[in-house]
Description:
By secondary structure, the chain is of the alpha+beta class. It has two domains: 1-67, no CATH class; 69-102, no CATH class. The chain has five helices and four strands. A four-stranded antiparallel β-sheet has the order 1-2-3-4.
Amino acid sequence: SLELLKILREQNGQILSENEEDLSCAYTINNNKIVWLPASGGKGIVFEDEATMREVLKNGVPIEDDNYNPFKSNQEHLVNIASEINYWLKILSEKLDLEIDV
């Protein structure tokens, strides 16, 4: 993030938008590229343009934040965990690259 903040200063970064849910911000810089910074954590992304940023971020942030809370982002699946067990087995299988059979 320090490098991205330096780029914002050097290239007259202007805020484009702020995500109300996760408080991340997108900034335009001189060459029409977009700098995306999360509210916390040490990583961000430079996108070629706004359309590319919106396409990538529409499915969620592709960066794992050190403060990421999987329980908050998956509340709808946790409310009825007994009926959602297949969902969680699928996620676990994908993360571990294993076929889990219960």
